[in-house]
Hints:
Elements: E1 7-12, E2 25-30, E3 33-38, E4 44-49, E5 53-59, H1 62-66, E6 69-76, E7 84-90, H2 92-109, H3 115-127
Amino acid sequence: MENIEKSLWKDKKRSTLFGLALSFTHYELKESRLFITKGLFSTKYDEVRLYRITDVSLTRNLIQKIFGLGTIHCTSSDKTLGNFELKNIKDSEKVKEMLSEQVEKERVSHRVYARENMLDMDDELINN
């Protein structure tokens, strides 16, 4: 039986020219994976498991702010995709929060813990 995940969010990379979706880059967030599809004639399909994302941040320059866009930066331990960006996303603050929450859920469900947390616990044990 096929595992069909619910799609939580879809969008295209938008142009900073009036915030229009004129690109051939598509993003889709599902419950456990993020998909990035790029290209028209030659298409590249990337997928990252959310538990592999270790950090999410957002930047918005003046033009992006004017058109309600932002770029989400993701630090990832994925071998093929590495660190990546979701560029010129509409409602970027809301999408970043949604992505962060879903990443945390997946990390907990897969029992993936960051090394920095382990180091904090070691320091606590040593100091007590």
